[in-house]
Structure formats: structure tokens, C-alpha cells
Amino acid sequence: xxxxxxxxxxxxxxxxxxxxxxxxxxxxxxxxxxxxxxxxxxxxxxxxxxxxxxxxxxxxxxxxxxxxxxxxxxxxxxxxxxxxxxxxxxxxxxxxxxxxxxxxxxxxxxxxxxxxxxxxxxxxxxxxxxxxxxxxxxxxxxxxxxxxxxxxxxxxxxxxxxxxxxxxxxxxxxxxxxxxxxxxxxxxxxxxxxxxxxxxxxxxxxxxxxx
Amino acid sequence: xxxxxxxxxxxxxxxxxxxxxxxxxxxxxxxxxxxxxxxxxxxxxxxxxxxxxxxxxxxxxxxxxxxxxxxxxxxxxxxxxxxxxxxxxxxxxxxxxxxxxxxxxxxxxxxxxxxxxxxxxxxxxxxxxxxxxxxxxxxxxxxxxxxxxxxxxxxxxxxxxxxxxxxxxxxxxxxxxxxxxxxxxxxxxxxxxxxxxxxxxxxxxxxxxxxxxxxxxxxxx
Lengths: 211, 221
Hints:
heterodimer; B: 4-stranded mixed sheet; 10 helices; transferase (chain B); Glutathione transferase (chain B)
């Protein structure tokens, strides 16, 4: 039985997929169309009661929230694939710290920008330019802290790639791609080098190729 | 005897309380070093060295300096597995996964609207900032939808992640406490049967009562 990941066309499920690839875990996917409102179907809500993406099924086991899913698999398959949690309790602590930074400082503004710039028109809504501007400013301030951090450390949690870096891949890909805001990354020397490094990992290239 | 760990931040901060509640549950000795945020202590260079985003709390023990309250809580549970409440972060991988799921639900779904409401209803008036009725209404609706999901879950399960109190429930305590005690919208939690029952249980834990006492001492002359 393989892990089934719902909603691979979207960003948060890709957070899970890239982790599974890094850990060499077999998986399959099942599409969920947000524009058609399939995330509000009763069958989907049985799996993910908040109607969000992703959810995974692993035999009888169901789990949602992408950052919970990647923690679970990174730990369960510790002995195979890339080590994504650091080697010591202290390194793990730093991975958790930067994963929380992504979740609470990086994600909110970049998510607002994603909804406004990539999805509003698809949903028949007008773009809130003020919100986009405010979110971009917020994200810029966060990236300034990252610039300082990454000038002293190759990756966010230390000199090793981890879940903390991985977690940034999907939405940052939207930022440099369809949102056409690559300058936010390129204007910052160390963030730029870090982005080149992590986005060129074979696992991420595979995700972009497949989905 | 081990040196007490250090927590930096004001006792009235919700994120600081999240960490303090966890340390109390885990029976880990700590020293709370308060910060005066009104005076901008959290934006001074010395503090920015340990928390570059200028947010509270920050945490230090003999081995490490950390920030982000939920990361600190996870680290404390992993670093002190034999102390205090041993089941706080689960005792097997599936239990831990469920706790992480509900910790993420708290962080992504419960925290944003509840924080916005606490700010608008409890803090803004104190800071002489005009309340935004639109923001209040929007976040009330958001929070109500989230709590509908919680209501169903807590009808099937005693606590969010399962039968035992966990870090996932604990993480909700600070914002929920302010909603119930410092705003007139507490019934958003207490009027729902299962959420109300759950709130009553988790807020009556000794660890949380100690946190509330600590907050009250902040106010005493």
C-alpha cells in the first residue's frame, strides 16, 4: 500500500510530495479541483474537515496539515533518503524553529499574494491591490531577516538542508514564476544563492516535471 | 541541579504563555525574564540577536537559543522526555502525528482569527486604537467556521488529538483564555457544547491556573 496524496496540482500538497521524494517513499496522488469546489464535497470533508489541501491516506491512517505530514514521514523514515531533521536534538530544535518561521512569518503574506494574484480572477473576484502591496512589504521584511541569517548559514537551520528549507519551495516557486516577483529573491544575494540551491535539488525538479 | 531555562517576554503575551504552560506541564524549572514591549525592549539590538524578527518569546537553555513558541514547546518535549507530563507530545509516532496535525490546525486556522479578535476587542481599546468592525465581523465568521469543525471533533474525542491532553490542546489556551475572559465574545467557545466542555477541562489544569496567576501578579501593585 502506498501513501496517497490529495491535490498535487496545488502548492501545499507539493510540500508533502517533495518530502516523500527526498525520503524515497512511494506515493500516488488523487486530484482535487479547488475551482470546481471539490474540496467542499462531503467525501473530501470526511478526510479533511477544514476543506483544505492536502490530506494523505496511508492504509487506514489519515493525516492532514502539510507540515504535520512532512514531520511524520521525515521521522518515520529517518534511516532512508535525505536526513531532513538534523542529527541532534539541538539541530532538530533549529529545524522546528525555522519551520515555524515559515508557517507564521513567511507563509501568511506569500499566501495572500498567491490568492490575490493567482486565484482571485479564477474565482471571479477583483484583485485587492492594497492587500498585495501590504503583503509584499511584509514578505520583504521577512526576506531581509532571511538574508542576514543566510549570510551566516548555508541553510536556514544550519549547514544542512532540512524540512525548514523544503517547506519554502512550493509558494516561493509561485513567487518567482507566475507571480513575476523573482526580484524579491534576486535582490537579496544570499537568499538568491539559497533559492538556487534548494530549487535545483532533483526532488524539486521532479515535482515540477510531474505536477 | 540543572540551571533553569530562560524564557524572554512579558507574561501577558499569548505566545510567552504557551511556552510557560508547556514548561509547567513538563515540570522544567524556568526563569521568566520580562520585556517591556511598550518601551520597545523587543526591538533593541541585544534582543534582536536572539530573536531577529523582534517577536516574543525567546528561549535559552545550556545548549541552545530558540524562538517561535510552538518550536520551543516541541524542543522542550523532545529534550525532557522523562520529565513531568510524559504524554504531552505523544508516546508513539501515530499519537505524535495527530498532535502535530492539531498543533498545525491551531497555528493555521485557530490562531489567526482568534488573535485578530483578541487584538480588536481586548487590546485596541487599551491602546487607544480604533476598533475595525469589518475586521471583527470577518474574523468572528472565520473563527465560527473553525469552531464548527472543533465541535464535531470534540464530540468524537475527549481532546483534540485523542483521549489524552496534549500540546495541541495546550497551544489553544492563551488565545482562548483572552477571548473568554477579556472580551464579550467568549460564548463563541462556551456556547458550543463540546468545545465548551473541552475548554472547561483544559483551562482547569493546574499548569494553566499557574499561568493565569502569574499574569495576575503582573497587574498587582
